[in-house]
Specification:
Largest sheet: 4 strands, mixed
Number of helices: 10
Bound molecules: flavin-adenine dinucleotide
Structural class: alpha+beta
Distance between the termini: 36 Å
Number of strands: 10
Order of helices and strands: HHHHHEEEEEEEEHEEHHHH
Shape: globular
C-alpha cells in the first residue's frame, strides 16, 4: 500500500532495509541463540545515522520525527526484533531528555546519544511496581547539591550496555505518582551498578537487567523538570515511544509473513505446493490484511505526533495494542504454516513468535492500555 512517505522517509526505509538484510540477517540467529548484545550492529546503526533520525536539527539530529524512527524500527525488526531494540530502546531513554530536559541537559547528553557513541535506557519498572508504576519505591533525597538515590529497577532494556539512564524515583512518597521525579544517571556515578541480567524467551539479542542504586549520588542539575513531575515526564515519553513498540511488532509480523509466503510456495504435499490450497491462501490473506491495518494505524498515530498533537495517550495505546496483537497472531500462524519444521530452532520462524510476545507486555501491557483507552473514552463522553 502507498503511505505517501516523503523522499527522506523512503530513503530511510531503503537504507534500513539494506542494512537489515546485509548486516543484521547474517548475525541475528547467533545473537538470539547466545543471548549476546549486538555491538557489531550498534556500530552499523551509528554509521547509518539511525540514532539521530528523530532528533530535531537544532540539537544536531537529522530532523525527522517519530514516523522516521518507526520506519527504521519496522525494517530492522523485520529481520530481528531484538537487535532493533538497540536503536528504539535508546530512543526510549533519550525521549525524557529531548521532551522534558532543559537546554543544559540537552547540550550535555544529546550529542553522544545522537552519534550512537553512548546508548540510553529508561528505568521506571520495579519488582513491586510494574503496571502499578505509581507505586515505585526507589527514593531520591536531596542533600545539598545532590540527590541520594536508593532502590532497585528491574527489567530495564539496554540495562548494563547503556551509559545514560533516565530514571524515575520518588522524592515525596506520600504523594504517590505526584511525588515522583525524573533523573539522568550516568554509568559510573557513585553508588550505581547493574544487577541480574535476564535470560529471556525472546528478543534475546537485547539486554535486560536490574539497576541498583545504593546511596547513588546524582547532581541536582540532572533532575529533569521539577520535583513531582517525574510521572508526567514518563507518560509524555511513553506516549511517544509506544508507536516504536508498535513498529517493532509490525516488523516482526511482516518478517514472519515474508518467510511464510516463501515457504508455502515451495513446500510440496499431496503433489502440489501447500500454497495452492485455499485454506492456506485464506490464512495468508488474513495475515496480510491484519499487517496492513496495523501499519495504517501506526503510521497515522506517528504522523499525529509529528504534526504536534500533544495528547496522544489513547491513540498511541491503540496502535500498540493492534500491532502487538497482530504480531502475536501472524507469527503463530506463520509457525503453523511451517508445520513441524516451524517448531524447530533450525528454522528461522519460531524466533519471530518468541520475539512477538514481548510487544504485548512492555511499555504498558495491552490490558493496561485498554484501561487507558477506556478511561479516555469515559472522560470524553463526560465532557459531552
Ligand atoms: C523484556 C522486558 C523489557 C522491559 N524493558 C523495560 C524498560 O526498558 N524500562 C522499564 O521501565 N520497564 C521495562 N519493562 C517492564 C515492563 O514494562 C513491565 O514488565 C510491564 O509494565 C508489566 O509489569 P509487570 O511485569 O510487573 O506485570 P504486572 O503489573 O504484575 O502484571 C501482570 C499481569 O496482570 C495484568 N494486570 C495488572 N494490573 C492490572 C489491572 N489493573 N487491570 C487489568 N490487568 C492488570 C497485566 O496486564 C499482566 O497481564 C520490560 C519488561 C520486559 C519483560
Amino acid at each position: 500500500m502507498n503511505y505517501f512517505l516523503n523522499e527522506q522517509q523512503e530513503e530511510i526505509r531503503s537504507l534500513a532495509r539494506r542494512i537489515a538484510l546485509e548486516k543484521v540477517r547474517p548475525v541475528a540467529a547467533k545473537h538470539d541463540r547466545e543471548g549476546t548484545f549486538p555491538w557489531d550492529m550498534v556500530e552499523e546503526f551509528a554509521k547509518a545515522g539511525f540514532f539521530s533520525i528523530y532528533i530535531p536539527e537544532e540539537y544536531g539530529g537529522t530532523g525527522g520525527g517519530v514516523l522516521d524512527l518507526v520506519i527504521v524500527t519496522e525494517e530492522l525488526s523485520r529481520i530481528c526484533g531484538g537487535i532493533a531494540l538497540a536503536v528504539s530502546a535508546t530512543a526510549l531513554g533519550t525521549f525524557p531528555i529531548l521532551l522534558s530536559g532543559n537546554d543544559d541537559q540537552k547540550a550535555r547528553y544529546l550529542p553522544d546519544l545522537i552519534t550512537g557513541k553512548k546508548l540510553a535506557a529508561f528505568g521506571l519498572t520495579e519488582p513491586d511496581a510494574g503496571s502499578d508504576a505509581g507505586n515505585i519505591r526507589t527514593r531520591a533525597v536531596l542533600k545539598g547539591d545532590r540527590y541520594i538515590i536508593n532502590g532497585l529497577k528491574h527489567f530495564i532494556t539496554n540495562g548494563s550496555v547503556a551509559k545514560i539512564y533516565t530514571v524515575i524515583a520518588s522524592t515525596d512518597p506520600g504523594k504517590g505518582s505526584r511525588g515522583a521525579s525524573a533523573f539522568i544517571v550516568e554509568e559510573g556515578f557513585p553508588g550505581f551498578r547493574y544487577g541480574k541480567i535476564e535470560d529471556k524467551l525472546g528478543i534475546r539479542a537485547s539486554t535486560t537487567s536490574e539497576l541498583i542504586f545504593e546511596d547513588c549520588e546524582v547532581p541536582v542539575e540532572n533532575r529533569i523538570g521539577k520535583e513531582g513531575q517525574g510521572f508526567i515526564v514518563a507518560m509524555r515519553t511513553l506516549e511517544r515511544s509506544r508507536p516504536g513498540v508498535a513498529a517493532q511488532a509490525l516488523g516482526i509480523a511482516q518478517g514472519a509473513y515474508d518467510l511464510a509466503v516463501e515457504y508455502v510456495n515451495k513446500r510440496i504435499q499431496f503433489g502440489k505446493t501447500i500454497a495452492s490450497n485455499q485454506a492456506i491462501q485464506f490464512m495468508l490473506a488474513d495475515m496480510a490484511t491484519q499487517i496492513e491495518a496495523a501499519r495504517g494505524l501506526v503510521y497515522a498515530v506517528s504522523r499525529m505526533i509529528d504534526n504536534g498533537i500533544e495528547k496522544v495517550a489513547k491513540e498511541s495505546s491503540m496502535c500498540k495494542i493492534v500491532a502487538s496483537d497482530v504480531a502475536m497472531k501472524v507469527t503463530t500462524d506463520a509457525v503453523q504454516l511451517f508445520g513441524g519444521y516451524g517448531y524447530m530452532h533450525d528454522y528461522p520462524i519460531e524466533k519471530f513468535m518468541r520475539d512477538a510476545k514481548i510487544t504485548q507486555i512492555y511499555e504498558g501491557t495491552n490490558q493496561i492500555l485498554r484501561s487507558v483507552i477506556g478511561r479516555s473514552i469515559i472522560k470524553e463522553a463526560a465532557k459531552g
